[in-house]
Amino acid sequence: MNHHSHTSYPATRLRRTRMSAWCRELVAEHRLHPSDLIWPVFIQEGKNTETPVASMPGVSRLTLDILVQKAREARALGIQAIALFPAIDDKLKSPMGDEALFENNLVCRAISDIKNAVPDLGIIADVALDPYTSHGQDGVVENGQVAGDKTVEILCKQALVQAKAGCDIVAPSDMMDGRIGAIRAALEREGHHDTMILAYSAKYASNLYGPFRDAAGSAKNLGKADKRTYQMDFRNGDEALREIALDISEGADMVMVKPGIAYLDIIHRAAAAFPVPVFAYQVSGEYAMIKAAAANGWLDGDAVMLEHLLAFKRAGARAIFTYGAVDVAKIIVERET
Ligand code: PBG
Predict the structure, then answer these.
(1) What's the Rg (C-alpha) of the chain?
(2) Which contiguous run of DSSP H or E holds residue 257?
(3) Are 283 and 259 in contact (CB under 8 A)?
(4) Are 308 and 282 in contact (CB under 8 A)?
């Protein structure tokens, strides 16, 4: 192409459309909106108490009375769904995670409280045993291994208990083989035809989950153990697409890639390959890194948060889990008014 072609300089100067704020708004390819955000929340027993999580500045474990108020505020800001993560007393933990199946457990009460008070807010509950097991693994342990098939039987019951409490979306985050099909069959059998499944399909054995495990209270139970026999090896990308294809074939309504910002390639490949909604999770470690740098004055935390969340959308994520959902929604709402 010669120098004077209309598709090259100076006929084309890409800076023209960047010169003014109004034009940058017109030509922007992607936008971040509160309805893109899903708010993950840690919950605990008690009344009128917020317990700050040291490794996640701005995040607290909430008692259910406060949870309901904050859920209402989140909905008013335009957030469409909340995801619940319980931190339960060690006395309630056991090798099999029995508390997960108790119909009146903390998560089930949270689901029904929110449903009653804020009926138009979507409720997502994690299906996995780690909040409930004394060893902190997501499944039951036999002969030193997490036993997949036995775990799946329990996860089906856990999902049913949550669906019965009024949960809109059950979200298996455990990475056991075959759990999506088994949970879908169990839901259908019990008449929960409209309960959706958000499959954590491509969930990696990441080093970015530490603050979550502090918040949920499973870090001390897990100790030095890891989850590499079930969560994915972060050296693999093709394998993520196999996981996603299987979960779709088993009945997943949406699929998740997790963690987020270091896995934008996986989000992009998943969104390009499959006609299902792909969600992304900005995990606790990502959140903590931004907050820690901001607290030191090394980064503008809000600006970096908005940049990361927009990057998820550019990569192809349909919705994003972020602990900053409420703060970010406030920023967006203020900017637009
Ligand atoms: C557990 C679960 C984890 C997260 C969500 N569900 C932690 C883990 O797999 O150990 C991590 C979320 C985060 O780090 O923000 N089933």
Answers:
(1) 21
(2) strand 254-258
(3) yes
(4) yes
Task: Tell whether the model's pLDDT for residue 283 goes beyond 70.
Answer: yes
**Distance between Cα 28 and ligand 1 center (Å):** 33
Please, what is the end-to-end C-alpha distance for the chain in angstroms? 46
Query: CA-CA distance, 111 to 42, in Å (whole number)?
Result: 13
Classify domain 35-336 by CATH number: 3.20.20.70
Ligand 1 atom nearest to CA at 40: 15
Pocket of ligand 1, candidates 203, 231, 283, 286: which has the most ligand atoms within 8 Å of its Cβ, to mutate? 283
| Distance from Cα 333 to the centre of ligand 1, integer Å | 29
Q: Is 39 exposed, middle or buried (0-12, 13-18, 19+ CB in 10 A)?
A: buried
> Which amino acid, 123?
I
Q: What is the distance between the alpha carbons of residues 310 and 115, in angstroms, rounded to a whole number?
A: 30
Cα-to-centroid distance, 209 and ligand 1 (Å): 6
pTM of structure: 0.96
Q: How far apart are alpha carbons 67 and 185 in whole angstroms?
A: 32
Instruction: Tell me the domain boundaries of the chain.
Output: 35-336
Minimal-distance CA residue to ligand 1 atom 14: 209
pLDDT digits (tens, 9 = 90+) for 112-136: 999 999 999 999 999 999 999 999 9
Please give the positions annotated as active site: 203, 258
Instruction: Enumerate residues lining ligand 1, CB below 6 A.
Output: 126, 128, 130, 138, 173-174, 209, 212-213, 227, 283-284
Task: Evaluate whether 200 touches 270 at the Cβ level (below 8 Å).
Answer: no
